[in-house]
Amino acid sequence: LNRFGARNAGEVISRALGVETRAFGETESPLSVSVRGASDRQVLILLDGRPLAGVSLAPADLSEITLEQIDRIEIVRGGLSALYGPNASGAVINILSKRAVARGLPLSHYSYEARSYSAHTNRLDFGSRWGRFDYTFYGHTHRVSGFRDASDQRQHSLGANMGVELGKAGHLQLDGGNFRRNAHWTGQDPRLLDPAAFNNKDEKLGTRFD
User: Fold this and answer.
1) Backbone angles phi, psi at 87, to 5 degrees
2) pLDDT in tens, 108-160
3) Backbone phi and psi for residue 29, each to the nearest 5 degrees, phi listed first
4) Model confidence pLDDT, tens digit, residues 77-118
5) What pTM value is reported for the model?
6) Rg for the chain (alpha carbons), in Å?
7) CA of residue 83 relative to chain centroid, distance
8) Could you give the CA distance from residue 8 to residue 21 in angstroms, rounded to a whole number?
9) Nearest C-alpha neighbor of 33 from the set 90, 112, 101
10) What angle do CA 50, 106, 95 make, to 5 degrees?
11) What span, in angstroms and rounded, lies between the C-alpha atoms of 141 and 154?
12) Which of 14, 17, 96, 183 is 20 to 30 A from 73 via CA?
């Protein structure tokens, strides 16, 4: 996951064979996935075995699942509708959350990245196990000013999971998270428009611009 400098689940999955990710806009979000030609609505995305959906039941946005949350990703190519329903006619991708394995003091990771256009990224995750209990916390913040006015973006992702071993009864796990993105969409740069498109004398089409 760390080898390619990925920031989220979509950027990791894009390295797999037969997988194509599709980003929208300069902010590269939302980020959907296609497997072996199947559309993003034919690929079922699972998080720890639970189905994910985007806004208004749209395909899941993989840019919302940050690298700090991920332990591993399983990709099953081909139709699995008999097991998972019609949304799995192309493939199933199961993203497994990171769980604490070290005991004692929390094992922590933190990184900071800065680059052009006032882009700043903070990443943090830590967790530990105490007896039968384990917990993991992760956080990711990103902001960029953009290369045009009113093209900035702000986003954050925070989450945690806690678990307890119940012996023969299994393992009880609680998960929670919050993701928020604020992005400005400025449209096409007016300096790149064709002036002839505005040089029309027909009043029915609008005001003339020279």
Assistant:
1) -75, -5
2) 889 998 988 888 999 999 999 988 999 999 999 988 887 777 778 888 999 99
3) -155, 145
4) 888 877 887 788 888 999 999 888 888 888 888 999 898 888
5) 0.72
6) 22
7) 25
8) 12
9) 90
10) 20
11) 8
12) 183
